[in-house]
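Q: Protein A?
A:
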Amino acid sequence: MENYILNENKKRLEPTETDCEYCKKRKVNSIEDCYFLNLYNVKKRTNLLVYRSVKYSLIKVGIRRCVPCKIIHKNADKNTVLYTTLIIVALNIILFSVIGIFGVITMFLSLYLAIFLLSFIKNKLSLQKGILSDQKGAKQNQLVKDFLKEGWSTKTPFA
């Protein structure tokens, strides 16, 4: 925590060091180039028969990232959506032509496949450039590890 300062206006922890945590070669130019990982901590959960609610705390933790690593992550995000869409559309066309009307079932299976493909392709595209994906790299940060040990989560809580 000593390497971070709290920005109360933006409700986030900003790193004070400047070495990139992804490539470990370059320096961070601007705090806005950093990747900010959302961490959640459930404060109160209510489950009644007809009413559900959850109250939680949110903090953003800045992960040091240089401009080239930021560009790699942005390109990986764009290309992941493109590649996944092409794969799913091609798969549906092929299965519709082979199975016929029962190919409608493949549309539902494609949704599950798309969820898997999104994270898989994003990780592969980042690894090809020699760095971890933004999410996986962020989880290597010591402060994030400490928050996760204390019960915080990277997934948005729901009722």
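Q: Protein B?
A:
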Amino acid sequence: MEKKIGAYSNENNAVSVSLRANPFAKDENSQYIVNATRRTVDLNNLIAGLAESNTGVDVAMVRHSAELLKREIISKLQSGKAVNVLDLGTLYIGAAGTMSKSDVTTGTVPGFEVRFTPSKDVKSAVTDMEVDKIVMNDPAPVIAEILSLPDKKTDGNLTAGKMVRITGSHLKLISDQSAVYFVPFDESNNLVTDESRWVTVSSVLITRNLPGTLEFFLPELEADTSYKIAVRSYENANGKDRKTPVTGISSIAVKLA
């Protein structure tokens, strides 16, 4: 069934942005990660806008031509060619992964994906856009206190193999991807961003899992090494599951006593 061309809404050149705290900033209150809000305009919107600003345009012919152009672009991509799309930028084929040095054959190529490089004109067209609204995302987990349960101390000294209680907000782990980590420091005294070096608290070690409280047995940590505790949660401000996780990191460092 043919889609109807809808009404055209001419919005100004403003964009909304959302902010969330950067958990790896040296000063946890100094930086936000900024994301532009995506508002998608489809082909119907484009054709409606074109028809409004260009009286006499044959809308049906524009739609038909656009469909033919789409098919031709896909055909050229399937033949391995890069395509300059209306001088907006270049669509091209890229490899989707890596290959083992021990098995280099055409059959082990990891597959392909489509990539896009915008043109200089497109890049310059959006550099001076105005921001009409800033939205604060649901807050990340907040670790207000770290308590060593055996001695009831909050100085960051923890006992190997014993229990720890952290209190705060938005702490509840409500999916398999949610987790508690111990994040070490690197040689420059910055938090390690390579998550393969983080120490994960196994779910079997967690004994209490509430929005305001987590209790768990310490995982195996290196002696004489300082860490910060990170909580990665999929809980939003309403206590429901969210699509993308947020990570909160403790303000104080901890280590084995």
